Amino acid sequence: MSNFQKPSIELIEPNWPAPKNVKAFFTSRNGGVSAGAYGGVDGFNGLNLGKHVGDSPYCVRKNREIVESLGCKDLRFLNQVHSSRVLEADEIISDAEDADASFTTKSNVGCVVMTADCLPILLCSKDGEIVCACHAGWKGLAAGVIQESVRKMRERLSSSAVEIMAWIGPCLDVENFVVQQDVKDIFFRSELAPFADKYFISDPKGFLLNFSGLASETLKLAGVNEVYDSGLSTYSDPARFYSYRRDKVTGRHGAVIYKQ
């Protein structure tokens, strides 16, 4: 008799007071069928959701089915390109659609973004009418993906006064996010210029970027008054999270949000 046990799925749930009809979670690296660099910390049972990282297509498909079984069977994945392009979920015909955020007002349609250090940001209106998933790498953050996500949500509801809350999921922590002057210069040429400087901390290797801090203030300046940060580091917790900066070849997590 085999003692094999199905690996458990560890989900990170947002620490926010979202409406009861809004469901959201962030997947860890554990609980799937991927192996090797895409596996868990022991090299097995990884829940990699990224098709583009070199993992077996069969494993990725199975992992996505596992995530769908958690509650929403209509998940809309994107081909993320570090842009500010934001789509309504109905516009996503396949996961080859280039964009870095999606939103919907429909029930049981899941907006998904994948990350392995970048900022996963989940948003919803306080009345539960609209939800959005946003992928913000530093390039997308500088390009305005946060502002565009908020703008599209308000445009869809035909209200500039809609109250929105946001959750920032596990991402690269400031101690391990080393960037150079060229990255700082890009931010200083963007609309984030008035306040970005304080999030670049001088370091012998260049600058340390306080990624989540910069995103949090960007959200608030876009009119998102309630911002909740998981405070979790992908780089510093290899038992639970993939990290591109740490491992280079690695899997991708999913940040999922939908309304019932």
UniProtKB/TrEMBL annotation:
It holds the Pfam family Cu-oxidase_4. It comes from the Bacteria. It catalyses: adenosine + phosphate = alpha-D-ribose 1-phosphate + adenine; adenosine + H2O + H(+) = inosine + NH4(+); S-methyl-5'-thioadenosine + phosphate = 5-(methylsulfanyl)-alpha-D-ribose 1-phosphate + adenine; inosine + phosphate = alpha-D-ribose 1-phosphate + hypoxanthine. This is Purine nucleoside phosphorylase. The keyword Transferase applies. It comes from Turicimonas muris. The keyword Metal-binding applies. Signal peptide: none annotated. NCBIfam families: peptidoglycan editing factor PgeF (TIGR00726). The lineage of its organism: Bacteria, Pseudomonadati, Pseudomonadota, Betaproteobacteria, Burkholderiales. GO terms for molecular function: copper ion binding; hydrolase activity; S-methyl-5-thioadenosine phosphorylase activity. Keywords: Hydrolase, Metal-binding, Transferase, Zinc. Belongs to the purine nucleoside phosphorylase YfiH/LACC1 family.
